[in-house]
């Protein structure tokens, strides 16, 4: 990582660490399908600084799909070209390649680390998932139709080296108490409770010994007693420091068919997150609809194929981009699928014409009220950019006498650009 990259990704390095950042800079990701989900995901991936992004979608840009994007394309051009240019605008040094055939790409390269599928009709989901697991490629499927969404993740056999991303705790020993089977380490007060079952003791000469943690508080750590540890403490009893070590976790994911049959999905609605009870009927209907689409079975008309809700797509795209970070071993992958149900937004008095964005989903009175809003937003950093983008995609403040006013007196630094 050169000096320019360190400056550009300085805030990100502060969040995930240099080692994870270097791993991300070597990642190659294939995105299959161009829509609101993939646009958000590609935006995040370009700013994350991954190595290479491959995009596949030969669908032509038209009035029918224009509402899924917040950049304008040339009618008749491929959607993959639209998102490639978009990614290059955000990160001019980003490597982006258009893929004309997924099968050809998979034959030519063995360097894909993660495949993200956002349109079920572009590739058979089960076949692609099977290929990914056989070739140690992380597979993520995601979708948005109307006010419903879905994410499925299969990392196969995966090692998590840092489950939560929190910093490891440490503190100097102030006293030691010996019991029959344990040793009580009295330490200077820790900032937070330990989450790991392992730690090390290290002295001023950097001599170390590993300890097994049985229990702990902010001021006392109880470790398993051994002759070696007792000898180490008694011989090196000055300036000994306890340092927490992250415990690795092995993940063994199941395939999509098994996960759907188990029905152990996480459920997110407008009112709550990971709520119970779930809506099993909706879950079964929607997942069947998705699998039918992937085998070109279009007889299932339970959901509208070409109509999504941009904000929900944006939420899903952001979550999926974060899953790509987890390919590095940082953080714990989702377990394993999430169902989104925003049907409470569904309007009854809809526009008869489809010329208005979200006209077939949201009540016409609600849309009119959104358009007539006057909003004053303070700050246009990462959150401000997301808010203003999503407000624009629901036509907020778009009436002649309404306005979105933004203020932010900070100056742009290099680290702001990612």
In short:
This protein has 418 residues and is α/β, with parallel strands linked by helices. It is built from 13 helices and 18 strands.
Task: Give a verbal description of the structure.
- The mean pLDDT is 88.
- With 418 residues, the protein is α/β, with parallel strands linked by helices.
- The protein has an 8-stranded mixed sheet with strand order 3-2-1-4-5-6-16-15, with helices on both faces.
- It is globular, with a radius of gyration of 25 Å.
- Helix 4 links the parallel strand 1 and strand 2.
- It contains 13 helices and 18 strands.
Shape: globular
Label the structural class.
alpha/beta
Cα-atom Rg, whole angstroms?
Answer: 25 Å
Strands, count: 18
What strand line-up does the widest sheet have? 3-2-1-4-5-6-16-15
The share of residues in extended strands comes to: 15-25%
Query: Helix share of residues?
Result: 25-40%
Stretches with pLDDT under 50, minimum 5 residues: none
* Alpha-carbon distance between the two ends: 15 Å
Output mean pLDDT: 88
How many helical elements?
13
Report the sheet with the most strands, covering strand number, pairing sense and barrel closure: 8 strands, mixed
Key structural traits:
globular, eight-stranded mixed beta sheet, six-stranded antiparallel β-barrel, alpha/beta, about 425 residues
How is the secondary structure organized here?
Blueprint: H1 3-8, H2 10-16, H3 18-24, E1 28-32, H4 36-48, E2 52-56, H5 79-90, E3 95-98, H6 102-108, E4 114-117, H7 125-134, E5 138-145, E6 148-154, E7 157-160, E8 170-178, E9 182-187, E10 198-202, E11 208-216, E12 220-224, H8 227-235, E13 241-245, E14 249-252, H9 256-262, E15 266-269, H10 280-294, H11 310-326, E16 337-341, H12 364-371, E17 375-378, H13 382-393, E18 404-407
Parallel strand pairs: 1-2, 1-4, 2-3, 4-5, 15-16, 17-18
Antiparallel strand pairs: 5-6, 6-16, 7-14, 8-9, 8-13, 9-12, 10-11, 10-13, 11-12
Helix pairs in contact: 2-3, 4-5, 4-11
